[in-house]
Every structure is written in C-alpha cells, then in structure tokens.
Amino acid sequence: MISLGMDETHTLLAVTQMMHIAALACVLLPGISCGGTVVLLPLFDAAAALDLTERWRCSYIMILPAMLRFLVEEQGRSPRNVSCVRLCLAGGDTVPVTLQERFRSLFGAPVRELYGMTETVPVTCIREDAPRAGSMGPALDLVDARVADLSGKVLADGQIGELQVQSPANCIGYWGDPENTASTFSDGWLRTGDPVRRDADGFFWFEGRVKQIIVRGGSNISPQEVEEALYHHPAVLEAGVIGMPDPVYGEKVIAFVALRDGLTASEQELRELVRSRIADYKTPERILFLPALPKGLTGKVQRRALKDLVADSTAQGGVATTGA
Predict the structure, then answer these.
(1) What pLDDT digit, counting tens, does each position of 116-158 carry?
(2) pLDDT per position as a tens digit, 282-300
(3) Is the N or the C terminus of the chain less surrounded, counting Cβ atoms within 10 Å?
(4) CB-based burial of residue 320 (10 Å sphere; 0-12 exposed, 13-18 middle, 19+ buried)?
(5) Sheet with 111-117, side-by-side order of all strands
(6) CATH number of 144-207
C-alpha cells in the first residue's frame, strides 16, 4: 500500500470533508490505524488550514490541487511556522509542476501526487524513493492498472487510453443502477473513464477527464497541459481552459486566467508563452481575463460556467490586472 512512514507521533490534516474519499481513505483511516492524531477542517479555508497546521504541528496534509493553490498563496502572503510539515498528498486532478515547486519552497516538504476514486480508493501514488513531478505514480501494491482503448485492448506504453483498475478495493457496483454497473465494471476491471498514459518505468500520467478533452482538427488537447503552460507565467494565479465549437476544426481552445494582485500580462504575451512550451495547435485562440475564476465547493474551476461566460460574451480580452 502507500508507504508514508506514519506512526503515533504524526498529525494528519484533512482539508476536505469526510464525504470525500480522499479524506476518508488517505487521512482518517491511516491516522486511526497508526494511532496518530487527525485534524479535521469542516469547510476549506486556506488561512484556517494553515492556522491548524501551525497549532497542531501537522506533519501530513491531504489536499485537492485547487485547494493547494490557495494554501500556497496564503502562506506566501502571511507565513506561518509550517516546519512541521513533512509531506503533502494531492490528488483529484493534475498538480502543476510549478505549484509543487512553490509548495516545496514555502513548506520545505514535497508534494506526492496520487490517483483514486470513490469506487476503488487510491490506485497510484508517487513513491518517496522515486519522485517524478507531474506523474501520479505507479500502481500500488495489490492493484493492477492498465491502459486500454474503448474495445478493451491493452495499449503499449506511451499511448493514451482509458485507465482500468483491478483491485480488492473495487466496489461491486452502483446500488440500484445495473446499467451503469454493467458499463463500468467488466471482467473484474473498473473502467475509470479517465485518459492516461504509462511510461516505460510503469509510471502513470493523467491526461485530463474524458469529457474535458478538446478535439481540434482530429487531435486531442488536454486542458491541463495548456493550463500548466500558462502557470509558468509569474502573473498567472488561476487558469482554466475549455473547448468551444469551431465551424472548421470542430473545437477551439479558449483560456481564462486570473492574475495576481499588482501584476499584469497581455493576451499576446501569454499566447507566446504557451506556444513556446507546447505544440502550436494547442495554443488558445483567445485568452480572457477575470478577477477570479468560478469554482465549486472543492475549489475546482467550473468549466461549465466558463463555457457559459463565452456564450454570454461577458469576459473581455487584452491586458488586465487582477481586481481592475
């Protein structure tokens, strides 16, 4: 299983509610099992999370990537004594490498990405002895994971396909929903619906949610890859990328950004940055600026709301400053 080196001397902080599998499987149960202390935060607030970390000397933090960004920003604005932190576990979406590096610089501890879902709990996790920023790690002990196409054919390393999981932790199905159970579980394998690739060393790389993939001219574009490129600009605080209908290519890439207070960036500047880091066809056709991106309860950017903004033509492009 995940080797975190926990014992009764450690304190774990859960910033998500217990209804979320991450808090239950990666904080509460491990904390109880090792005889440690578990600190619960009823509703996420970056300042409160840091205050609790300092007060209770929390050594492990389990967090969602969107929340991690707010935690890092708050620590940068108002530093607490977080020398107690040994490790941050993050899962639920891609954790940009730039965000991982900033966390390490402010907290003096690494971020280890993992992948899991309610139907099977953790599936993969970066190992302490084999860090690989941007990867969600190899499959855990007792877990078989493969990359397959829609027909179930196992794909070679490097190819993008659906992550499928076989594990003793897999649930047996959905209560009262035989149709979804049949389509999700087949021959002992759980079809996650998430596109990934595996490298030659057995490490898995998240390629974005299936429903989020942008198909432009027959090529698949991961919103997370474009967002990662945007985050390399020091002025970018938040980034969200969506696909919108295009009469020629099927879909076009649209990006939204929120900038840090006092910093500026132009649409042209950001487009050139993206083009310098990833393939040209993945460069956003438009980059729109907002004071803050719409987010849900877990801090994730609400892409549906961004699509509505484009449709309503309420966002404006060009040079912008946060709060301006």
Answers:
(1) 989 998 888 887 767 788 899 999 989 999 999 888 899 999 9
(2) 999 999 999 999 988 777 8
(3) C
(4) buried
(5) 37-40, 11-14, 60-63, 87-91, 111-117, 121-125
(6) 2.30.38.10
Q: What angle do helix axes 65-77 and 97-107 make, rounded to 10 degrees?
A: 40
> 11-109 in CATH: which number?
3.40.50.980
8 A C-beta contact, residue 216 and residue 209: no
- Please tell me the distance from the alpha carbon of residue 61 to that of residue 11, in angstroms, as a whole number: 9
Sign of CA dihedral 15, 91, 110, 262: negative
Report how far apart the first and last C-alpha atoms of the chain are (Å, whole number): 48
| CA–CA dist 83, 261 (Å, integer) | 27
Give span(s): CATH 3.30.300.30, the chain: 211-321
**CB proximity list for 270: less than 8 A, separation 6 or greater:** 230, 233, 236, 255, 257, 284, 287
Phi, psi at residue 312, to the nearest 5°? -85, -10
Pick the CATH number of 211-321 from 3.40.91.80, 3.40.190.10, 3.90.1300.10, 3.30.300.30: 3.30.300.30
Measured between alpha carbons, how far is 109 from 143 in angstroms, rounded to an integer?
Answer: 27
DSSP letter assigned to residue 26: I
Question: What's the half-sphere exposure (Cβ side, CA atoms, 13 Å) at 166?
Answer: 8
pTM: 0.78
Euclidean distance between CA atoms 135 and 254, whole angstroms: 25
**Residues 6+ away with beta carbon under 8 Å from 3:** 127, 128
Amino acid at 92: G
Distance between CA atoms of residues 242 and 5, nearest Å: 39
Phi, psi (5° rounding) for residue 26?
Answer: -110, -5
Taking only Cα atoms into account, the Rg of the chain, rounded to an integer number of angstroms, comes to: 20
Q: Residue 195 forms beta bridges with which residues?
A: 162
pLDDT exceeds 50 at position 309: yes
